[in-house]
Write a structure and sequence with these properties.
Elements: H1 9-12, H2 15-26, H3 36-47, E1 52-53, E2 56-57, H4 64-67
Antiparallel strand pairs: 1-2
Length: 83
């Protein structure tokens, strides 16, 4: 994986890493998953965050594509929530 500030995982990871994360996203029950528009908006907000490096949130250590997919989860930056 190449280091890329403000890149999402799909842009910076090897295909198998990204595919594994997206497989986990697809297994989130539909009632718990963010609607597609909300998901896209969250990912765009993450792109503007200084804590995003190579698809990983440095505040919590998660892959942002996975965290943003859960409707109930919020941005982990309590001082400057992006979503």
């Amino acid at each position: 994986m190449k280091e890329c500030p403000r890149c999402l995982l799909r842009e910076s990871a090897e295909n198998d890493v990204y595919a594994g994360v997206m497989d986990r996203v697809e297994r989130i029950p539909s009632g718990e998953r963010s609607p597609e528009e909300l998901y896209r908006n969250r990912l765009e907000a993450c792109r503007s965050c200084v804590h995003l490096i190579s698809g990983v949130c440095m505040k919590c250590g998660c892959y942002v594509e996975f965290r943003a997919a859960y409707r109930r989860l919020r941005c982990p930056d309590a001082k400057d929530r992006k979503w």
